[in-house]
């Protein structure tokens, strides 16, 4: 029992001692040969410190490298009672003492044999790589790589030349077809140099990439330039590796973003389906007009997309970066200061949608512009006048002004067109009213029912104002209907021999002809002379 207990304590103390040795073990000084670390030494030798001893060993190895040849078997180890000497022929390389072995798990002869093997291997490789034969092989390999690169560049140039010729032929054929069809080809002529330059840029980029990838191969052929090759490859491999690792790490966040996007997408599909059904009248909601359906869907879509962006923003790559956040804030400030009028028009567009002042196709008057509504969007409304002039009016201007809709009641109540004429007091008002009604009924576009009616609007100094009012359900033809109405009024009054002296006339009639066309004057009519009474 006691024996087992003592063995256990011994084991514990030995482990603690070993770990303490490892903790207290110095870092060691490396023996470096041509940028390659052979081994490390941890103890000094005689009056030389560790660093000085390492420098001496390195100098002796470099002296051996200055020889014209190297025989690996000439590296020998001689073990004495206290030291082990590693030599190359008659030249001593280093001495291994017992203190060196205390920093390893080997005894001194074993450690010396290990150092000997490392020196033989490394020196052999250096001499092999630096030999005349190997140098010649390296030169030939480099020449072969250069020739291969030149051949590949020649092949790339030839391939792109062939591709350019094929492109030119196809382009000319296309231009001939366009010209035969009477289509303008000026745009095609302008776009051709752009596409041709893109092909040239792609060719140059491929050649540069080929040359860049060939350089590491050339540098890797020669041992002394291998670090340069590794560095050049790292410029390409490290970014690709970083991108690949970043993508792998981003996969969980990507799945979260995909789930949020999928939920938003299917909610929008449901809302769009309901909006279409309401717009087509498949079902109705009390107080909700069908023309509100799609605008409401667009508003919901914008809000859902905004919510989706807020939800996925923390999962975007670089969202926690101060630069990314700063750019986002900067763009928000620019949007706030630079889009006040645009935001005002957008809000006005939404308000106008639910006010329903007009719809596409209505004849309206917005401010002093009269025309048909051909487009409504969130920022502006587009009108087309009877002269085919397209006028764009900002929604904010429409909301802040007044609008007249000629079409909203035309199909139900009928749009009343009216015009006023002034007739002298000598014409019976019953006859004038009947003439105006007859003129209205004879006009194309005027409804027979409800019947036109006349209002006497004024008793002026020299005439009476008569306003004819007629119904129409064709507000988009207002200008033509008015023109026809004016023509018929002239014809009806001329046929009845009633003068239209708008806006006024004097009472002096002697010596003046009646103001109607000659065709409508009575037979044998003569101009009265001046009548002077004494």
Report on this structure:
This protein has five domains: 2-130, no CATH class; 133-221; 223-338, no CATH class; 358-403, SH3 type barrels, CATH 2.30.30; 415-520, Alpha-Beta Plaits (2-Layer Sandwich). Helix content is 56%, strand content 15%. It is built from 13 helices and 13 strands. The relative contact order is 0.04. It has helices at residues 2-24, 50-65, 98-102, 108-130, 132-180, 186-221, 226-279, 293-312, 322-338, 340-355, 395-400, 429-441, 478-496, and strands at residues 29-33, 36-41, 75-79, 83-88, 91-97, 363-366, 369-376, 380-384, 390-394, 403-405, 415-423, 453-459, 464-472. A hairpin with a 5-residue loop joins strand 8 and strand 9. The strands form four sheets. It has a five-stranded antiparallel β-sheet. A three-stranded antiparallel β-sheet has the order 3-4-5. A three-stranded antiparallel β-sheet has the order 11-13-12, covered by helices on one side. It is of the alpha+beta class and 534 residues long.
- What is the helix tally? 13
The helix content, as a percent range, equals 55-70%
Q: What structural class results from the helix and strand content?
A: alpha+beta
The succession of helices and strands, N to C, reads HEEHEEEHHHHHHHHEEEEHEEHEEH
Distance between the termini: 172 Å
Number of strands: 13
What's the rounded overall pLDDT mean?
81
- Rough outline: elongated
When the domains are counted, the total is 5
Pick out the low-confidence regions.
Answer: 20-24
Main-sheet strand order equals 9-8-7-6-10
The fraction of residues assigned to DSSP E strands is 5-15%
Protein name: Mechanosensitive ion channel family protein
Keywords: Cell membrane, Membrane, Transmembrane, Transmembrane helix
Membrane topology: Multi-pass membrane protein
InterPro entries: LSM_dom_sf, MS_channel_C, MscS_archaea/bacteria_type, MscS_beta-dom_sf, MscS_channel_2nd, MscS_channel_C_sf
